[in-house]
Amino acid sequence: MQVGKFTMSHSGDSKLRLMHLVASPSDLTTTTASAEAQRAAEPLPESAVEQRLDANVDLRFLQDPNIYHPLPTDDVAPAFSNSKQQPQPGTPLTTLLQHGHFRRAAEDAANELLRCASNGADRILQLLYTRLACLVLVSRTDLAAQEAIPLIDLLSRNPPGAEDVVPRIPWELRLLLVRLQSIGAADGGRRGVMAMYALAAEVRAHLNNVDVDEAEHSRWAGRLRDLGLRVADALVEMGELETANRHLDTLTNANADEIAYRKALLRARVGDVAGAQNCVKKLQDEHRRASLKALLKVADGELSNASDTFQALVEQQTERSLLANNLAVSMLYTGHIIDSRRVLKDLSTQQPGFSALLFNLSTVYELCTERAVDRKTALAQAMAAKAPGPDSGGWEKATFEFKL
Q1: Largest distance between two CA atoms of the chain
Q2: What end-to-end distance do the CA atoms of the chain give, in Å?
Q3: Are 157 and 113 in contact (CB under 8 A)?
Q4: Can you tell me the distance from the alpha carbon of 384 to that of 353, in angstroms, rounded to the nearest whole number?
Q5: pTM of the model
Q6: 294-329, pLDDT tens digit by residue?
């Protein structure tokens, strides 16, 4: 939730996500880019390490060096560029991913892709997925969208030979391509929604295959449920909030708690706090229910009560980072700016630097001192000195996250 210039966060699944009850619709999306970003942090599977060659496949069109853009570094906070934690030359790609060095991983994935045999489809497509997902992680979705065009064109035109390539494209890559083709689209994202419906039709065809065993059937059923939620996310990003709400009502096979949770966020987004509260009552997950109740108190202007509730939740819950962030914001808006700064400062030393925390602490510095630039620079240096990891978008942070 964004209150004034401050960002409040909500929890859900295992990912850090931001919600602005009074902000942009895209803040309600939960299974689009973040899912691909999370998968990119995982090591490459062993099956992808060895190139399996296929004489019927020729992916030279993906190995044009002109496709892949050099990554600018002027947006990286200097503390990270100069840090001793920077990976050494020659660090394996899997290690880069495990340690959250996503910018370097994106560069290495592209370089390795260009060296592959043109008929090594599995390896090339896995590396392309890694490249695109890492670009998303370092906030360069614009470059990812451009670099995805050749494969998106192949899927849309379906030229001769495409039937040998399409079955080899990892499912995660196909989902990411749908996401990227919607970025900056003149149709406002409608083509992306239709692409997801086309994927859903393909999934249903697999589910109707009587030869599919139980494990395979379960996997495709999970993909169908996931696609349903992604359509809702896309509708939110398009600003079609009521349509997204109605769409969620059609997802009868989805987890009931997940549907209630998302509907509560949608109701809050359109200003229907009472409707959001009705959705919260349906939640079985006590943690989600308590967190949303506190957020809705903020939406209702009950900042003092919200602060007390967040304080109690911080003391009760083991996963406290997002709750503590929201506690600090509510403290600030009840006039306790020193306590707010203390909570955020403690959180910055205990947790990886997620975006809402860095933004809020930097803003508090601006309110508290005329030496805010020095404080924000010191914060960036402290984050750069931490052990690298893939959490919260990776180890390396951009200057804008510290408001520098």
Answers
A1: 69
A2: 22
A3: no
A4: 10
A5: 0.86
A6: 999 988 889 999 999 999 999 987 778 889 999 999
Say which residues have a Cβ less than 8 Å from residue 323's Cβ, sequence separation at least 6: 11, 291, 310, 313, 314, 317
Crossing angle of helices 214-237 and 190-207, in 10° steps, is 170
Report the DSSP pairing between strands 15-18 and 9-12.
Answer: antiparallel
